[in-house]
Amino acid sequence: MIKLAIIGTGNVAFHLAQAFHLAEKVHLEAVAGRSRESLEAFKEFAPVFTHSDKIPEVDVLVLAVSDTAIKTVSAKLKDNDALIVHTSGSTSVDALSDHKRYGVFYPLQTFSKSSNLNYSNIPFCIEAKLESDFQLLEDLASALMAKSFQVYSDQRAALHLAAVFANNFGNHILTEARQICEERDVSFELLKPLMQETIRKAFDIGPQAAQTGPAKRRDTSTIEKQLNALHSDQQKELYTSLTKAILAHYER
C-alpha cells in the first residue's frame, strides 16, 4: 500500500484526490491547502489540513499547486523524507532538487472539477532522481489504471507547449466558432461531427496530410468573403494570422 498526501486544492488536486481515494493500492493520508473553504470539497477523500507541516508521514507527497507556487511550497518541506513530486508540465524537475528524493508526476490532460475522467486514457509523464523512486511513480500510475512514460524535463516542456497549441489555442478557436454560430442563430452542435473527424484524421494520417480548407486550397475569393463576414476586429486578426500561417506552411 502506497501512502500518499496531496498539497493543493485546484482542479488537478481534486481529480487526483478523488482517484487515489478510490485506488485499491493507495491510501490517501491527507490533503493540505491554504484555506478551510478550499478544502471543503476534499473532506470526503481524506483528512484535510491548512498547514503542510501537519501532514503525516507518507511515501509520496504530491505538489498539485500552480507553477509559481512550487518553489515556495517545496521550501517548507525540507525535512520531509517522502518522495516529493510536482504535477507541472512546464516546470523542470530541478525545481525540487533541494530534496533527497524528488520527481515529476504529470498527467497530460485538461482538468475540470465537473468532468469524469478515464485514467486508462491519460498518459502520465514521470521523472525521478532515483531509479527506485521512478518505479514507485510507475506503481502509482498503475494504481490509477493509467499508462506512464519516462519523459525528461525538456521533453515534458515541449509536450506542454504542444498541448497549449492543441488544447488551449484550439479551445479558444472553438469559442470563436461558437460565437459566430450564436450570432447567426446556428447550432454549434452541428460542428461536433466535423471536429470528431478532424481529430480522428489528425492522429490517423497526421495533421499536415489532413489539412483542408480555403487557405490550403489558396482560395483567395472565399478567404476575402469570410473576412468580410466577420464582425469583430479580433476575429479578423485571428483569421488572417492563421490563414497566413497555413499558406506559409504549405509553401515549404
Automatic annotation (TrEMBL):
PANTHER family: CONSERVED HYPOTHETICAL ALANINE AND LEUCINE RICH PROTEIN. This is DUF2520 domain-containing protein. Coiled coil: none annotated. Gene3D superfamilies: NAD(P)-binding Rossmann-like Domain, ProC-like, C-terminal domain. Transmembrane segments: none annotated. Residues 122-245 form the DUF2520 domain. It comes from Leeuwenhoekiella nanhaiensis. InterPro entries: 6-PGluconate_DH-like_C_sf, DUF2520, NAD(P)-bd_dom_sf, P5C_Rdtase_cat_N, TM1727-like_C_sf. Residues 3-85 form the Pyrroline-5-carboxylate reductase catalytic N-terminal domain.
